[in-house]
Amino acid sequence: MLAPDALLQNRYQILRPIGKGGMGAVYLAKDERLGNTIALKETFFEDEPLRKAFEREARLLASLRHPALPRVIDHFTEESGQFLVMEFIPGDDLEQMFKERGGPFPLSDVLRWADQLLDALDYLHTQQPPIIHRDIKPQNLKLAARDQIILLDFGLAKGNAAGMSQASATGSIFGYTPTYAPLEQVHGAGTDPRSDLYSLAATLYHLLTGTEPPDALARASVVIGGLADPLRPANELNGQVPKGVAEVLHKAMAIHGDQRPATAEQMRRMLREADQTIATATATNASSQATVIIQPQDSGDVVKQTTPIAAHKSAATIIDSPSNATVTGTTTATVVEEKAQAKDQAKSKETEREPIAPVAPGVAANAPAPKSNRLVLMAGAVVLLLVAGVVIYAMTVGFNSETAGSDANKAGVTNQNTAAQSNKQAQAGAASTDKRKETATSASKPEAAQTPLTDTSPARRGVLPRAEQNQRPTVRERLRRP
Q: What is the block-wise mean pLDDT of the chain (482 residues), using blocks of 10 residues?
């Protein structure tokens, strides 16, 4: 172990140890050149081929860029061993968080972390050559900012599967954690991307159930003996785990590697499909419609389905059916008995939504009016409005015409009165003139005084036209008289 304040490469100052194992140790250190905090990982071995392999792996890891992977900054060799300089991720690992929590993590959190880790594994496994982490477990997982999971400790990472098998067989630093390691890694038979899938599935199993899975070697021994696999499905240990997710984990933890998902991308799709099934089922349950059967009094009523209304966060469909009718073909659930409060709320909302139509004899008072009746009522109201508009318009035009006619009549009467007064004045003047003429004639011809002024002979009377009734003779007519 390195003492605090030790300075390596005249650059990295040891602050304190973070962790220690049989094959190495991890220190919190400070980069004196850049002034930031880093994680310094030391490995213990003296085999020259392994030193060369570690150097190649360090260079390979330094080229990686992924949100779920820490950035490798540098690597070097000192007399005490080889060191890998990596980005420091603060906080507790999932193992420590699990102990403090005292129980399994929520399903949504674990599935989100699984999706991020499988994306990182797909990135690692598709490198040339592929990189196998070989030590995925809760202790090597940390939660960074924005709920981003980080995969740590690439001390067992391998860029070449064949070389890895040889290194493991020689008892090198490359080891495993039995609870999370697949059988081929325990036997030293060689690892591949499916080995990481086993370790990840075992880790997710532990985080979801709160129980460590039985190790692969113990499971294989039981199965070879003809007994059932002791690995119980995750949904049996935790009822919150859906069956689809439990099946994916069980498949990824198969004893034989060829029975597991072939790639990280395939396992990621499988978990996403299971998660999508969960989301779809949840959405369906949240928006499921309840059907309430209302028995009207009249058996001849027609079945009617109204607009769904909300009742206790679920939609309710009200169906009016005859007392002797059978409702079929509905895809919603039928609820015969509802809580009194839910029924009252549904009825009040339905009353506010639909207008109240007249209740015909023999029809239930609480049955909503048929749609056809509502349409007829609306059409009748529109027609009445149109007729009323026409009547009002006609009355307005007629009143204006009568007013104009009355004014014209008044003007005509005034003109007639004026003309009549003029005629009277003219007739009075003419009468005075006739009288003076008659007096003069009588004075000049005495014998004519006894002659009557009016000629009553029929011939004389026929010359002058008779004045119409109620009409005075004109001045000309009076002058023509003898």
A: 89 90 83 92 78 77 90 84 89 92 95 97 92 92 91 65 34 66 92 96 97 94 92 96 96 96 97 80 57 47 42 42 43 44 60 50 49 78 86 74 58 58 61 56 46 47 50 63 56
Cα 378 versus chain centre, distance:
34
C-alpha span between 353 and 275 (Å, rounded): 38
User: What is the helix (H) or strand (E) element at residue 301, kind and residue range?
Assistant: none
How much is the pLDDT for 281?
A: 60
The dihedral built from the CA positions of residue 91, 96, 102 and 105, taken in this order, carries a sign that is positive
Cβ neighbours of residue 370 closer than 8 Å, sequence gap 6 or more: 302, 304
The residue written with tokens 């390979």 in the block is 60
| Strand locations in 59-211 (E) | 72-78, 81-87, 141-143, 149-151
Rounded Cα distance between 83 and 35, Å, is 19
Cβ atoms 173, 109 nearer than 8 A: no
CB 15 within 8 A of CB 27: yes
Q: Is 398 exposed, middle or buried (0-12, 13-18, 19+ CB in 10 A)?
A: exposed
Cis preceding linkage at 458, omega within 30: no
CA 307 to chain centre: 19
Amino acid at 29: A
Helices (H), 314-370: 340-353
pTM to 2 decimal places: 0.56
User: Please, which residues bridge with residue 31 across strands?
Assistant: 12
d(CA 29, CA 48): 27
User: Do the beta carbons of residue 187 and residue 168 sit within 8 Å?
Assistant: no
* Per-residue tokens: 113: 């972390």
Angstrom CA distances, 211 to 107, 135, 196, 233, 241, stand at: 15, 19, 20, 11, 13
Question: Between β-strands 12-20 and 24-31, what pairing exists: parallel, antiparallel or unpaired?
Answer: antiparallel
Residues with catalytic annotation? Answer: 135
pLDDT for the residue numbered 212 = 95
- Closest among 216, 214, 193 to 267, alpha carbons compared: 193
Task: Supply the pLDDT for residue 399.
Answer: 60
Q: Which residues contact 58 (CB under 8 A, 6 or more apart)?
A: 72, 75, 84
Q: Which residues are within 8 A (CB) of 183 and not within 5 positions of it... i.e. 6 or more apart? A: 216, 217, 219, 220, 255, 256
